[in-house]
């Protein structure tokens, strides 16, 4: 038994498909299938029920795959410890970002990170919060940049910045002449929102419901840019994080809220006992300096 056999088993358990698992492991399908068969022989157990349509793991297979995942994470931890002692700001680092942060923050931070830390290899992943958390827990990601939510206490975090929300209006909207908006001004208005799965949706909904506004349930956007275009088409109003607001926009009106302004805290989140904390500290300082309001 070797670590590669465990990697093959874990990959197959994740995708439930021999060809896709082989592609994920960068080996041929016969190689992966053959090594798993050898692993079954060595353990004296049937780990997988092979059918023409799908791969079904036995109870033993599920338990052993779960243990294999833990072993691989421990091995990765050992390698990370060695790398951290050798050079904490070098080697690969896998960072996950949510879609409402990535396109607006990455252009501001990637160039200075590469300039200041030339030996650090950035691998960047854009996914919704649920998938990012799963990747962090399973050791596939080293840290995340996302909106900190109450259910993330099991992770360590470093706050990077607090981002205000701006009320986004079409031209000639009745609220466009207000110097500052108060939440109560939203009462009775229908607000456009992102689709389910975006943490920004839940945060914006919280503010809107408190103000007495209602969600326009006839449409849910897949991105902030879609929201902007829908507002420009006079289909409703919305809340946008400040970094997503263009510096010059002749189609829309953006209004600030009175204090306390609604907004969100963006944090760098990592596994509580990660040995890469010195690297995260330096990255956080750089990002804090680059993102200011």
TrEMBL record:
Family statement drawn from the similarity comment of this UniProt entry: Belongs to the LysR transcriptional regulatory family.
Keyword DNA-binding: yes
All residue ranges annotated as the HTH lysR-type domain in the record: 1-58
GO molecular function, a single term: DNA binding
Keyword DNA-binding: yes
Species of the source: Celerinatantimonas diazotrophica
Domain of life: Bacteria
Keywords: Activator, DNA-binding, Transcription, Transcription regulation
Annotated signal sequence range: none
CDD domains in the record: PBP2_OxyR
Protein name from the UniProt record: LysR family hydrogen peroxide-inducible transcriptional activator
CC per GO annotation: protein-DNA complex
């Amino acid at each position: 038994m070797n670590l590669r056999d465990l990697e093959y088993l874990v990959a197959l358990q994740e995708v439930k498909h021999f060809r896709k698992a082989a592609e994920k492991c960068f080996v041929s399908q016969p190689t992966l299938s053959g090594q798993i068969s050898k692993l079954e022989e060595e353990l004296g157990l049937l780990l997988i029920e092979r059918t023409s349509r799908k791969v079904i793991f036995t109870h033993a297979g599920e338990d052993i795959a779960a243990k294999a995942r833990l072993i691989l994470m421990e091995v990765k931890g050992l390698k990370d410890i060695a790398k951290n002692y050798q050079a904490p700001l070098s080697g690969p680092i896998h960072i996950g970002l949510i879609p409402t942060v990535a396109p607006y923050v990455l252009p501001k931070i990637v160039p200075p990170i590469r300039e200041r830390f030339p030996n650090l290899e950035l691998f960047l992943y854009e996914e919704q919060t649920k998938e990012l958390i799963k990747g962090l827990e399973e050791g596939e990601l080293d840290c995340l940049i996302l909106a900190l939510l109450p259910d993330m206490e099991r992770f360590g975090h470093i706050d990077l910045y607090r981002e205000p929300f701006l009320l986004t209006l079409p031209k000639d909207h009745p609220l466009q002449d207000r110097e500052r908006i108060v939440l109560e001004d939203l009462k009775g208005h229908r607000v456009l929102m992102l689709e389910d799965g975006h943490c920004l949706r839940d945060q914006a909904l919280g503010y809107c419901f408190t103000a007495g506004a209602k969600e326009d349930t006839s449409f849910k956007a897949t991105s902030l840019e879609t929201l902007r275009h829908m507002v420009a088409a006079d289909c409703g109003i919305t809340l946008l994080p400040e970094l997503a607001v263009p510096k010059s926009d002749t189609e829309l009106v953006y209004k600030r809220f009175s204090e306390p302004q609604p907004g969100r805290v963006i944090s760098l989140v990592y596994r509580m006992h990660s040995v890469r904390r010195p690297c995260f500290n330096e990255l956080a300082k750089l990002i804090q300096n680059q993102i200011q309001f």
